[in-house]
Design a protein that fits this description.
Layout: H1 2-5, E1 14-21, E2 31-40, E3 43-51, H2 60-66, H3 70-73, H4 79-84, H5 86-92, E4 96-99, H6 102-105, E5 121-122, H7 123-130, H8 142-148, H9 159-178, H10 187-210
Parallel strand pairs: 1-4, 4-5
Antiparallel strand pairs: 1-2, 2-3
Length: 220
């Protein structure tokens, strides 16, 4: 990983990972599908997608989003077995992990929690800067962003479709900040910038939140 950290960012293979889950709480929810798209030089060169047995029921509200039911995952492998498979191990080899809003997806793939201590490449950080003047609710959602940048998605909320769109967005927007020729920054410099952007986004949101009037307690 140290060699990748100091390499020019366009030369680093990145595996973009997306999950469809039983819900949004990593402490209790689990992945029901995982998609991985490996990009090299801005092109998708390998891909993997599998349903995952979450070992717990999939709520109807989650199924309404991604279409995955309990019956569909009954005979699917567990997430640990997916990532231990030779196909996935080979796909991830010598690559850096990435996602769209990595703070979410990284919590649903092994090793769970923060065990993958290095920061992931996060396409959303670049979107927030490139599209900072775009207005409207949901403006930074993956499908909305892809459409805005001319990236075709056939079937949003399919883990592989989303992972590939994430990679295309990253390689379209990252050169605007870090070049893609002889003057390209290192992956480490890119990740440092990304961490700063994420911290500023967190600060701006919480500053705004702290100034909002308190919500009235729900009536009993």
């Amino acid at each position: 990983m140290i060699k990748l950290f100091s390499a020019a960012w366009p030369s680093v293979p990145v595996c973009f990972i997306d999950t469809e889950t039983t819900g949004t709480a990593p402490a209790t929810d689990r992945a029901a599908q995982v998609g991985i798209a490996r990009f090299e030089g801005g092109k998708c060169v390998g891909e993997f997608c599998s349903l995952v047995n979450p070992a717990r029921p999939i709520p109807a509200e989650a199924t309404a989003i991604h279409g995955i039911t309990d019956a569909m995952v009954a005979d699917a492998p567990l997430i640990g077995d997916v990532f231990a498979s030779s196909e996935v191990v080979a796909l991830l080899a010598d690559a850096w992990p990435g996602a769209y809003n990595q703070a979410f997806d990284r919590l649903f793939v092994p090793p769970f929690g923060e065990a993958w201590s290095q920061p992931w490449v996060d396409s959303l950080s670049f979107v927030r800067v490139a599209d900072r003047w775009v207005k409207g609710s949901g403006r930074h959602k993956l499908a909305t962003t892809a459409a805005r940048h001319g990236i075709e998605m056939k079937g949003a909320h399919n883990a592989l479709v989303d992972a590939k769109a994430c990679g295309e967005i990253f390689f379209k927007l990252a050169p605007l900040q870090f070049g893609d020729g002889a003057d390209a920054a290192t992956l480490g410099e890119l990740l440092r910038w990304q961490r700063i952007q994420e911290a500023e986004s967190w600060f701006d949101f919480n500053s705004w939140l702290s100034k909002q009037p308190p919500r009235e307690a729900a009536s009993q």
